[in-house]
Structure formats: structure tokens, C-alpha cells
Design a protein that fits this description.
Layout: E1 2-7, H1 14-26, E2 28-35, E3 38-40, H2 43-46, E4 48-50, E5 54-58, E6 67-77, E7 87-97, E8 102-112
Antiparallel strand pairs: 1-6, 2-3, 2-7, 4-6, 5-6, 7-8
Length: 118
């Protein structure tokens, strides 16, 4: 919903990467998740997730240039939903951070179809 990834491009350790992005998420405001018109409450307190340290491999035409970067960390607010019933659904996520003047406002339109497990 609202998250940041920090990639080691300047010989930084994972703790330094986390320290760079933490103020942006610590100052997150106006977090909102709406599923089919129903708002999910208390996102700030319940859904913040900090990733384990990982590495990322970027292709030659990628933003950072080709190579494998490590360490990489992610920090942010996420939502885990119960399975949605078959049919059309709208998921709307928004949030902003005063700490780094960053925000997101996105709507996903999903169609859930039946699945045969045979």
C-alpha cells in the first residue's frame, strides 16, 4: 500500500538502509485501504511490515544498471485480505508521508473467477 525499497548502491549495510527509509514510514499519514467501499481501519498500528534483508538482480536496461545488489530492504504498510468472493471488486489504497513528501493513491479493479483444482 505505502512502502519503500532501499538498495545498497553506496557500500551501505542493511541497518543504514533501514535508517534512511524509516523516517518516511514513521511519518506516514492518511493511510487508507478500501475494499468494495468498505474501509479497513487501524492500518497504521496493524499492518507495517519490514522485510528481511534480500538481494535484487537488475537487468541491463533496469533503473540501477545491470547487476545484483545487496543488501536490499523494504519497509511499509501492507494489507492482507481474506479471499474475495467470485465477481468484480475494487481495492483502493492511499497514503502519504510528510517525512519525505511521498504519496500513493491507486485503485485496482479485480475479477475473481472460480478455479477448478482437478
Amino acid at each position: 500500500m505505502l512502502n519503500l525499497v532501499d538498495v545498497n548502491v553506496a557500500h551501505q549495510c542493511a541497518a543504514e538502509l533501514r535508517a534512511e527509509i524509516a523516517p518516511c514510514l514513521d511519518s506516514a499519514t492518511t493511510l487508507s485501504a478500501v475494499v468494495d467501499g468498505q474501509e479497513i481501519l487501524s492500518l497504521r498500528d496493524k499492518f507495517r511490515v519490514r522485510s528481511d534483508v534480500f538481494e535484487a538482480t537488475v537487468p541491463a536496461d533496469g533503473l540501477l544498471g545491470a547487476g545484483t545488489y545487496s543488501p536490499v530492504v523494504d519497509d511499509g504498510y501492507c494489507v492482507m485480505l481474506a479471499p474475495l468472493p467470485i465477481g468484480e471488486h475494487a481495492l483502493h489504497f492511499s497514503g502519504a508521508s510528510a517525512g519525505c513528501q511521498f504519496g500513493v493513491d491507486v485503485t485496482y479493479r479485480l475479477t475473481v473467477v472460480p478455479v477448478s483444482l482437478q
